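Components:
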Amino acid sequence: MTKETGYIIAGILGVALSAGISIVTGNIWAGFLIAILVGIIYLAVMDRKLIQTLEKSGQKTTMRILIIALILAQCYTSYMVYDQAQFMQENLAETRSSIDEGSSKIHAQKVLLDTFKHYYSQAANRSDNTIASSFREVMGNQLQPDGTLNFSEPAIGRAIVFKYDIVSPDEVVITASAKIGKGENTEFVNVSNETGKYQAVATLTPNGISYEREN
Amino acid sequence: MNEKIKSVLNWVLALVVAGAVLLLIQFPEAFGAFSSAFQKAGYMLADPSMILIGFATRSAISQFGGGIGMEGFNTALILAIAGVAIIFILAPTMMFLGYKKAEKSVNKLRPTLWHLGAGILIAAIGYSFYTAIIWSAEKNDVMAATERQHTLDELQFELIDLYYDASAKAIIPQEKGGGGGYFTNFTANDGSSRDIQLSDLDRYSSESQFDFVISDNVTDSTITIVGVSNLEGNNPDFQNADGSTGHIQMRLTVNPYEDSRIDMQRENEWLYASR
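Structure:
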């Protein structure tokens, strides 16, 4: 085996081993960036051990210029691409959260507004009229035994879990917990047993509707 | 052949190799059904990070839809790492070995090994710089557009809150501070009736980054709330509801008794330029 073959095998093995870092961490960029670092080390060793042995100084200079340009170009583009990938991932995650926030705001408050209208339309006629009784009457069989709300549109249920809680005769709470959209705190435990997802609470009393984001 | 011509020819051949690599990236459709495979080969030889952005894009879209986002992880990793090995290890060594062989040869035209190595290095340098410069030039525009969209999302959320707050306030009986079923039936300080005002709404904040206005055309069952952003719209002379000009605004009609979807209209935004 020639000296050059030995260097090539060592260099390729070093770069290939970097892939293991990605496999272990699950982060594809970690192994890739380490592989570039190994490549740069290889080029430095190549400069000292191989390029030095070239007879013509012009050839040495040409190789060194190309190697320096290669390192600069690849590091620059890798950084830009990595940065772009992170930005895209964060932006899509934020967009998803926004969609879930908009959807939960509309659906939770719509249910409570329907209840509110019913409550005040019955107020003059029934002595046993409460927010809780109105909520049960309006929602009917949409109230599930496990404490969730069942919407007729399946897309809503795929994205958000709506849990209801009849706190008192005059207070009903709906907690909207996203299945995909992320919240602000990654360690927040949602009512749906997910972790770190968007969650908000809509409350209905005889005084009106409130909506507070919890995560 | 003249020695100078041979020297130039060496670099021309290297540029031909570089050009072939760039053709794989820029015109993959020339390879028909194998276009994707040839383009990936081009990225491996010029800019392996582009293989990872492809994976990252598919991964982010998958996560957006609720998936895990790891499909194609191993393939992308192997191709990208192989690309690094070619660009950083094989190509420079091939070029070096080409020089070494040429030292022992009387022929001034260098070995193919040199042309391949030099060609790949030229492609990797040229394409990477090109990509990085283009992306860094577009970065500010992309970030500004994203920031703008998030601001409009915030405005939309505040309008939705006001929609339900105003609806509830209209329903609440007059003696409890509401409109008793009407937007036109709120009690003024002097005991007379007046239209609903923003100050009636618990969730309205004058501290908001947006300006909100209830349009003059209030009826018993309908009001229109307009939210004005501080973002420049497509028409600088557009008259906003708050008296300012040229800003993007959103218009939302509120009718608690109509069981329809919330219809938010964006005004003075380029996407909705006809409005």
